[in-house]
Amino acid sequence: MALDTIDAAAKRGVLAVQEYALLSARALSDIFRRPFYRDDIYMQADIIGVGSLPIVILTGFFLGGVLALQSASTLQQFGAAAFTGQLVSFSMIKEIGPVVTALMVSGRNASGMASELGSMIVTEQIDAMRALGTDPLKKLVMPRIVATVVMLFFLVIISDAVGIAGGGFVSVFMLGQDSSQYFHTCYQSLQYPDILQGLVKPIFFGFIIATIGCFYGMKTRGGTQGVGRSTTQAVVWSSILIIATDFMISRTMIGIFGR
Amino acid sequence: MNEVGINAAPNATTSPAPSSPAAEPVVVFDDVSVGFERKPVLENISFQVRPGEMRILLGPAGVGKSVLLKLTNGLIRPDSGRIFVFGKEISAMREEDLFELRGDIGTVFQEGALFDSLTVRDNVGYRLMEEHLPEEEVTARATEALRFVELEQTLNKFPSELSGGMRRRVAIARAIVTNPKLVLYDSPTGGLDPITSTTIIELVMKQRDVSHTSSIVVTHRIQDAFVLAMHHFNPTTKQMELLPPHQIDPNTSFLMLHQGRLVFDGTTKELVHSDDPFIEEYIS
Questions:
Q1: What pLDDT digit, counting tens, does each position of B175-184 carry?
Q2: Which residues of chain A are under the pLDDT cut of 50?
């Protein structure tokens, strides 16, 4: 009995991975096939990118601020408080900016995608779309993937900039540090591999957010309760995958560039 | 029900009946079976729909009527058997090719399945917009289709602002806006009050008798089925009228599902005279 349960669960898991891979591959290949839903991409970019801007700015600012506070108090013990800017910019650009922005966007948009597509599934709107001759993967999934990948890239840049500014605000106005010293150390020690690492991550994270959100939305079963379940699973799995992928990208980049 | 006429009415419609036994069938099911999670839903289903013909699919709730409709437009693939639509074997077609074929099939879903974030105009004109037709043409054709269902005043409303019956009528307008050769109705009167049901049935009849479109009508309401078989739509008076005594619509015939199998495929006359205990009980 227990073996049967494990067997069934394993099969479900393998099937889910297969379905996810197929959905992602088909949606990606749709980018190169007509019709190209440009208007839908712009609309999704507005919802995902512009809509997420306030939370990204707020979280970025306070994260930069708290980083400055914490690192300054530690660095002070070694008489190295002058390096606060370097620590803030390093942390924001390489790790915290991409990961926290992706998690915020995931919480807001992976859930939104799963609930929107899930509702369309349970009310037969997806079937209606197919019956009307439209490929739902092309019309609904592909624009969300393109919009999330592109917009998350820019949201992370904004988050990094606002985070450094937040760290600067705390360093100058609360810790009494010199502003030119803070911003000088911020960029002085940065190298191209650091920037590259910070810009590669959002591309992967954006893809994860959109494909996981759409995948759970498209496989929704069981009415409104099913929609709720899909929404939760989308946020949980996209968050886990973002952090796991972050580790793998960091390891790979450190392996390649040595930093 | 036993008063149902026994002769087909050759002059029931305003123009000659377009169907003829020699014409190539619009839909062919050839020994089709399908199941979900190892449980058979439909087994060894075979039937045909000829041009201009209306097949009324009867059966108790949960017997697989909606599944059969979804098989017809390729939304579900059969486990075995072959399905032909307009002479093409859709059970062997790729999904991308099916999208094109579905342009000639109109589908009215059980609950309407209107896009709730689009206006009535955009719902009805959805397929036209996907074909990138000019906005003016989309509006004109959507208005024309809405006029057919007498709802042209709802053009700029959202589905949530309409009643259940109105949503069902908009779904019919969306299905017929491109003048499809085949229309699939999935319980078009399900969950509606008797007066609204009659309005919907009248629209289904109008599409059959005015446009001579082939159709499959899924219903579990036997009264709706017999109204369709015993009435015709008069375009002059713009109303449905009872056929003369002992006459039935020649283009309307019946299919009945029971426990996943097709237990009846025949005319109205054959249905009412069937001595199958299940059919007798169902139509009594």
A1: 999 999 999 9
A2: none
Distance CA B57, CA B69 (A): 9
Half-sphere exposure of B112 (CA within 13 A, CB side): 22
Per-residue CA distances from B9 to A205, B63, B249 (Å): 67, 32, 6
Give the gap in angstroms from C-alpha B283 to the nearest C-alpha of chain A. 30
Cα–Cα distance, A5 to A11 (Å, whole number): 10
What total number of domains does chain A contain?
A: 1
**DSSP per position, A112-136:** HHHHHHHHHHHTTHHHHHHHTT--H
**ipTM entry:** 0.84
A174 CB within 8 Å of a chain B CB:
no
CA distance A156 to B194: 58
Cβ atoms within 10 Å, residue B173:
27
Pairing of strands B261-267, B7-8: unpaired
Average pLDDT of the segment spanning B1-18 = 42
Q: Does A250 touch chain B (CB under 8 A)?
A: no
Domain B21-283 falls in which CATH fold? Rossmann fold (3.40.50)
No. of helices (H) and no. of strands (E), chain A? 12, 0
Structure tokens at B58: 């009867």
Q: What are phi and psi of A93, to 5 degrees?
A: -75, -40
Lookup: tokens for B107? 């589908």
Measured CA to CA, the distance from residue B53 to residue B55 in angstroms comes to: 6
CB contact under 8 A, B75 and A131: yes
Could B114 and A35 be called an inter-chain contact, meaning their C-beta atoms sit closer than 8 Å? no
Q: Which two tokens stand for residue B82?
A: 């072959």
**Helix, strand, coil share (%) of chain A residues, nearest 5:** 90, 0, 10
CB contact under 8 A, B99 and A134: yes
pLDDT tens per residue, range B239-264? 888 988 888 888 899 999 999 999 99
- Chain B residue numbers touching A123 (CB-CB < 8 A): 111, 113, 116
Give the start-to-end residue ranges of the domains of chain B: 21-283
* Dihedral sign from CA coordinates of A203, A115, A234, A132: negative
H or E element at residue A66: helix A51-77
* Contact indicator for A52, A105 with CB cutoff of 8 Å: yes
Pairing of β B252-258 and β B54-58: parallel
Cβ–Cβ gap B113/A35 under 8 Å:
no
CB contact under 8 A, A133 and B127: yes
For A8, B117, B206, the CA distances from A226, given in Å and listed in that order, are: 20, 20, 39
Domain span at A94: 2-257
The CA distance from A111 to B212, in Å, is: 46
